[in-house]
Structure formats: structure tokens, C-alpha cells
Amino acid sequence: MEAVREYDAKLDSKKRLTLRGTAFSYYHVAEMKNGTIILEPRELTRPFQISERTLVMMDRAMANMEQGIVSEPINLSEL
After folding, report:
1. 44, 26 in Cβ contact below 8 A?
2. Which residues touch 24 (CB under 8 Å, ≥6 apart)?
3. Structure confidence by residue, pLDDT tens digits, 25-43
């Protein structure tokens, strides 16, 4: 794999390393036994994931619909 950018970096007095010009704010760090460090960009929320609570609510809604427990149709013509 070809590097897009390479530079040398040094830890500061608090053992922090600064990454220059990064496209992401959060990274997953994997440190290997041979000293290699792999950074993978991360997002704090997982995109396109539906929560367990939402799935339960959807299951209840479908069960209600199958039993005929539904509300009146909503008139969207005004929008």
C-alpha cells in the first residue's frame, strides 16, 4: 500500500502524539507486538444502525397493524 503522506512525529511531555491535517476527529488504535501502530478512522455513532429499542417498537407496531389496531389515516394534502 502506497503512503499518501509521511512525516516524523515526536511524543510531547505528556506522551501525546499530534497528527497533522487529519480528515477525522476520532481513531481506533491498534498497537502490534512489533511496535507498529495502526490508526483507523472512527465515528462515535455507528451509521445505519437501528437501536434495540427502535426494533422492539417496530415489532410492536407491526403486531398492532396485523391485529387491525391502527389510527385514522393522516391527511397530508395540506403539506
Report:
1. yes
2. 41, 42
3. 899 999 999 989 899 998 7
Residue type, 63: A
Which of 20, 29, 27 is CA-nearest to residue 41? 27
Amino acid at 53: R
Q: Return d(Cα 71, Cα 3) in angstroms, integer.
A: 58
Residue with cell 387491525: 68
Residue 52 and residue 57: Cα distance in Å, rounded? 9
The residues with which 38 forms a beta bridge, in sequence order, are: 30
Cα diameter, the chain: 67
What are the beta bridge partners of residue 27?
A: 41
Q: Is the pTM for the entire model greater than 0.85?
A: no
Instruction: Determine how many CB atoms are found less than 10 A away from the CB of residue 39.
Output: 13
Higher pLDDT, residue 31 or 48: 31
